[in-house]
Amino acid sequence: MKRQKNIDYLNEYFQIFIGVVLTSLGLKAFLLPNGFLDGGVTGIALLVRTQVDLNMSYLLVLFSIPFLILGYFTVSKRIVVKSIISILGVALFIHFENFQTITNDKLLISIFGGLLVGSGIGIAIRNGSVLDGSEILGIYLNDKFGLSIGKIVLFFNIILFTATAFVETIEIALYSVLTYIIAAKVTDTVIEGFEDFIGITIVSRKHAVIKKAILLELGVGLTIYKGSSGFGNNGKVEDFDIIHSIINRIDIKKMYRVVQDIDDEAFIIEFDVNTVKGGVLRHYINKKKNRKLPIKTK
Questions:
Q1: What range defines the domain where residue 45 resides?
Q2: Rounded CA gap, 271 and 92, in Å?
Q3: d(CA 172, CA 161)
Q4: Same domain, 157 and 47
Q5: Alpha carbon distance 290, 297 (integer Å)
Q6: What is the CA radius of gyration of the chain?
Q7: Same structural domain, 104 and 7
Q8: Are 142 and 152 spatial neighbours (Cβ–Cβ below 8 Å)?
Q9: Final residue of a domain: which of 192, 208, 227?
Q10: What CA–CA distance (Å, rounded) separates 255 from 257?
Q11: Residue 23 to residues 39, 158, 179, 181, 188: CA-CA distances in angstroms?
Q12: Last residue in a domain, options 137, 160, 192
């Protein structure tokens, strides 16, 4: 057990190292040589660097300190320790590594700079580390005032990019916004994964027939909740089954068709699912052609 835990720790730090390398490459080979900004603390450091003759690595560490101190009182100590190691790692890579500028095309700089920085940040966050202190600020304000973390970070970056338009040029500000959008989207994709899952909850009088049809037609696992009573267009309903399932987005239309062919008045709730582990779903994703789940009969 202890050995497995040590292996997990090493794997986390190895992945954080990969995230640090990708972020450093995006900054040093794309954004820094061309004066483009990313969002958050990194963006502040990049903007200040255009006005003062200080090494980017020093600025990155300097501007991260207040957020790390805030994180000490806001998030777990383990996250803070990992974040300190990660930020120092990025600063050291930027300081010592001499990544050559790959392109001078502004559109390519925005796209690939954002892609690399977003990938690095996403990998770090997925392994319990923060490469940008603005997320810590978002967590703190969310706990304190109930504000959305996403809106806090967005507002933070609106101020940053507005300042960029005045200090630099509107063109650089616009390219920086594009970089930030790409980086944010890639970060979300890395954190949430590439598989696009959908959760489905179905309430219907014909629940028994729908259960069997879903198992036969889609071959997915089901979780059944007992419903005691409900109220709808048809009045009060008692003692019914609530069907819950997770499917890949590609099969969502088929799921609706199967249910509505049986009961076109069925109540269906659809919601996004970020991560799924274990269960029948993994077999479903890799299922052999025409594979059907067995249906137990009494």
A1: 2-192
A2: 42
A3: 9
A4: yes
A5: 21
A6: 25
A7: yes
A8: yes
A9: 192
A10: 5
A11: 13, 22, 13, 15, 15
A12: 192
The pair of structure tokens assigned to 160 is 């940053």
Q: Is 106 exposed, middle or buried (0-12, 13-18, 19+ CB in 10 A)?
A: middle
The alpha helices in the chain, defined as continuous H runs, are 2-26, 32-34, 40-49, 56-74, 77-96, 106-126, 134-145, 149-167, 170-192, 207-217, 252-262, 281-285
Cα 45 to chain centroid distance, Å, stands at 24
- Say yes or no: 249 and 172 in one domain: no
Q: Is residue 296 part of a domain?
A: no
- In what helix (H) or strand (E) does residue 222 lie, and over which residues does it extend? none
User: Rounded CA gap, 182 and 186, in Å?
Assistant: 6
> Strands 267-273 and 223-232: what pairing?
unpaired
- Is 182 in the same domain as 41? yes
Structure tokens at 232: 């709808």
How many structural domains does the chain have? 2
Tokens of 133: 């202190």
Residue 69 resides in a domain: yes
DSSP assignment, residue 50? Answer: T
The pTM is what? Answer: 0.70
pLDDT in tens, the chain (298 residues): 667 777 878 888 899 999 999 998 988 888 888 778 877 888 888 888 888 888 888 888 999 999 888 888 877 788 888 889 999 999 898 888 777 777 888 899 999 998 998 899 889 888 888 887 777 777 677 677 776 666 777 788 888 888 888 888 888 889 888 888 888 888 877 876 665 678 899 988 888 899 999 888 888 888 888 877 666 566 566 677 889 988 877 778 888 889 989 998 888 998 877 666 665 554 444 444 444 444 444 4
Query: Is 15 within a domain?
Result: yes
Tally of residues, the chain? 298
The answer to whether the beta carbons of residues 193 and 275 sit under 8 Å apart is yes
Token couple for 108: 């390519």
